[in-house]
Structure formats: structure tokens, C-alpha cells
User: Fold this.
Amino acid sequence: MSNNQDLAARDLKVLWHPCTQMKDHEQWPPIPIKRAFGVWLEDFEGNRYLDAISSWWVNLFGHAHPAINAALKDQLETLEHVLLAGFTHEPAIALAERLTQIAPKGLTRCFYADNGSSAVEVALKMSVHYWRNEGQPQKTRFMTLENSYHGETLGALGVGDVGLYRETYAALLLTPIRVMSPDAYQRADDETAKDVALRAIADLKRALDSQGHEVAALIIEPLVQCAGGMRMYDASYLTLVREACDHYGVHLIADEIAVGFGRTGTLFASNQGPITPDFLCLSKGLTGGYLPLSAVLTLESIYEAFYAEHLAQKAFLHSHSYTGNALACRAALATLDLLNETTLARNHRLAQHMLASVETLQDHPNVAEIRQTGMILAIELVQNKKARKPFDKGERLGHRVYRHGLSAGVLLRPLGDVIYFMPPYVISPDEIELMGKTAVEGVHQALKNH
Assistant:
């Protein structure tokens, strides 16, 4: 038995994998990874896999980056962790300073948590607690966009709208007010992406007219609804939604957990409004894919609403044991050192290569569209191009592309029948060519009998 087979067999006796039907592993065992470098993962038999999805969107500058490695080795010699209640440390302070400097103007306070879902939970609780402290305890509800996803803890799941994740746990969840998504995929033949955004704003305003008095916050994923199928929308929506929230006295929570740190072409997707949200949720790429860490940035006025003489009076009672972990903060600082205007300019050129690598699929009868925002590209597979009729779920076309990708040495984990690229920023044009060629071949192979 090879090392790969031995580890896979041991895995299946003890592990329960995330977002996985474990029965699938009876036919396709998990692939044990021995090491990783740059955009490549390598198993115990020397097979390599190009990480086209940045290991679930977290790895910004490739695996085993020497600068991040060096920063962590240095930090290990001084401080690995200390509680952040009554104590503090240099990496946590320095990271908060850096984040508030580069974030949209006005976000001056940083609250740490452990992961993206936790960051969303923090923002939801802060919003409701703020209104309570300000004498408006009736503002306890949330607005969310159709087809949105914000995480899988109960609070975060409660403001999502992807049935696959939500329906099983519906009895445990919040009941948000759902409003139309600006998702440009749903445009009519005579509409532009901006037209859809305007329709979505009109729907939002109607809902705020009738229920705004009880709404604490609206939560959105700026520009790209990622787990909802990489659906994308016009940046004009950001400016208009900010204006609507201000008019009706509702907080705006920008969930940039997946789209922050250069993914959409700008440092933050909110920059394309440009807007300043009341809460900015960050995670995933924050540490370059090394360690769990998230941050919620907010306004000084919101921070001040919690300032009082006694803990129980107005204080925000939310904590994580690993809040502001020193190693994670140091990894984040090293990651931000690599993220600059040169990186963003290079990403712009790489994004053009990504689109060119799959452009032959534009006219495929089962490709509804190829859409792109910065370093995120998605290919939507459908049964009927004109009607945009999806395939039956049992056909698992996306899964077929995924299996082809692995056989060709490329990790393409789809979202249903949406094949997407979200690679590390260190990917080369040649590696993009391999990624695109593999995806094109995989689509043709999966659809050859349709």
C-alpha cells in the first residue's frame, strides 16, 4: 500500500470532512498532501496539483512563502499567544493600526475574532447592541440579499439565503428580511448590470419604507456573492445601498471575508463604491492562508456607544480564547507587507490572462456566461444557454470537471455547476494557461453527451 493509500485509509476511519458527502470517498479517497509551495500542492507519490482556488480562497501569496515563514519563525521565539483581555501585544496593535490605515476612511476600531463566521457574528451583535445602547431596542432584525452567504455558525447562517446550507437548520435560525440581489446574471435581454442594480435598490427601499424602523443592519457581500455561485454585480449598487442605509438609519455590514485584500481588483471591494460600511468583516486572506484570524473594523461613533463606567452597563461582551493570537497577527502583518500597488497592477494583468485562457467557452451551448471581477472568474454550466436552465443536480457536471482537473493536476473544486478560478496572486501566466486549458478540457469532457 502506498503512502497516499495508507493515509487515505487512516483518514476515513477517523475524520469527518467539511462540505463533503463522505460516501463519495468510497470511490474517490481523499488526497493526502505532503507539502505545498507557491501555487502547488504535492502528494506523497509526487503528484502535483495547481491550487486554482487558493485552498478555499485563503492563500493570497502561495504556500510556504519565505517572508511569511520568516515572520512566524521570529514570532515563535518571543510570544505565541496571550489573552487579549487586560493584556495586549505588539503584533495585535500593529495589525490593528495597519488595517485601520488601509481600510475605507472612517473605520478606526478593530475587533478580532477567529474566522469569517465569527466576524459576521460579531458585526451582527455589535449592531443590535449599538441600537440598544442608543435607546432603540426595537431595531433587532437584519436585511440580507437573496442568494447571499455569510458563514455557517447559527447567527451567520441566519442571515444567509443559500438553501443548501440553510434549510436543514431553519428551525434554529433568524428570519431576516430578504431583498432582491443586484446579481447581474438575472438581467433581462434588454438590461445592463446597472439596470439590475437599480431594480434591486428600488426593492430595498420598499422594504425599508415598511420595516426600516425594526432593522438593525443590512449585510452584503460587496461585488461578488461567492458561495452563492460567484454571482457578480455592478459597483453602482454599493454607492446606492450606502445612501439608502444612511437615509433610513440602518447599519451597513460589508462582508469582505472572501472578496477583501485585492481579490476584486482593488484593496477592498468597498473601494469601488467608494463607500465606508459601518462594519467591515475580514478573514480568509488576512493571514495569507496560514492561520485562523478575522477582524471587524468599525466607526469611532459605534465604539463610543459602548464606552461607560462599568462592564455590565454598555460593554460589548463577546470573546474568543484565541482573540488577537500573536502568531496569526504576525502572519497577517507579513501578508500585508506583500500586498501593494505593484501586486494589484500585476493582478490586473493576470486577470486578463485568466479570461483569455477560457474565452473559447464563450459560445459553448452549455455555458450560460463567463463572468469576472478582478482575480475571480466563474464559468456557469447550464442545460440551456438561452433560457439559462440549470442541469438536474443529479448530473453533477461540476463534479465531473473537478475529477478531470485532479487527473490533469489542477484543483478545481466547483460550486455546483459553477467552475471558478480564485488562484494565489503568485500564479504565473504559464500556470494560468494550464489552469484554463484544464478547465476548458474538463467542461468539454463533462458535456460531451449533452
Q: What stands out?
A: The chain has two domains: 31-60+340-446, 69-338. Residues 193-211 form the longest helix (19 residues). The first strand starts at residue 33 and ends at 37.
